[in-house]
């Protein structure tokens, strides 16, 4: 399965692993790269020394291409930019901001830059400043989301841009990957499915909640205040909903409560295993995830099912 993304990044399969904060460490990213995709270390709000340690670990795990996700609103964003240049990281994905001021630096170090975008306008802007590709993420995804669905936004971005487009959000198996390719994407980015990979180091309580999830078990918090986040329903999301209903009745909403409620919530779930009061970020495909598998098993299943679906449909139509 070859695509422009494979050629651009030097990978075997057009599959990127999402750069999930607190989750996407060297163990997961290294396994994805070694299995033929592009593993991505999630920088999140981590300081330089923490990300450096993960980069050193992944270089011990694999000699294949990997990436680092830089959250541009992080207080350490400039430090991480310096780090990826110093360590000659081959690929950078960016989120939560505009990477314009760093592009020249990235290009000087031959780093491929792939911003994550939620709209056509932002995609066009990223192409103009020199992005090598874009990840178009629909609201089906876990974590921080936009307002457009994958099915609607991917073909619009594909039509508007000349650089390769990678689809993300709601791609739970090979059928979803086949659909993304039919919409014009050159590859896919997967997050939630990798949460239950054996090489993923999230707390077992987190994995168990993903595996037990049904189709209706995710919700979006802060739809009216702050930044919308998709996660598995629990006591934390219920508290967000309760506060939001209260604030909607006020003329001057107090947003401080929302900020305090979410502080450290992801770490609680990922590291401490608190699946009641922690944020169990997951996409709507959680209902498709039935068991823990190795990264290689996950990637192989995506590729084989994608090929089977496309072959079956094409033979039927022709």
Automatic annotation (TrEMBL):
Coiled coil: none
Keyword list, A-Z: Flavoprotein, FMN, Oxidoreductase
GO molecular function: nitronate monooxygenase activity
Membrane-spanning segments: none
Keyword Flavoprotein annotated: yes
Oxidoreductase keyword on record: yes
Gene3D superfamilies: Aldolase class I
Domain of life of the source: Bacteria
PANTHER family found in the cross-reference section: 2-NITROPROPANE DIOXYGENASE, 2-NITROPROPANE DIOXYGENASE-LIKE PROTEIN
Function: Nitronate monooxygenase that uses molecular oxygen to catalyze the oxidative denitrification of alkyl nitronates. Acts on propionate 3-nitronate (P3N), the presumed physiological substrate. Probably functions in the detoxification of P3N, a metabolic poison produced by plants and fungi as a defense mechanism.
Full protein name: Probable nitronate monooxygenase
Phylogenetic lineage: Bacteria, Bacillati, Bacillota, Bacilli, Lactobacillales
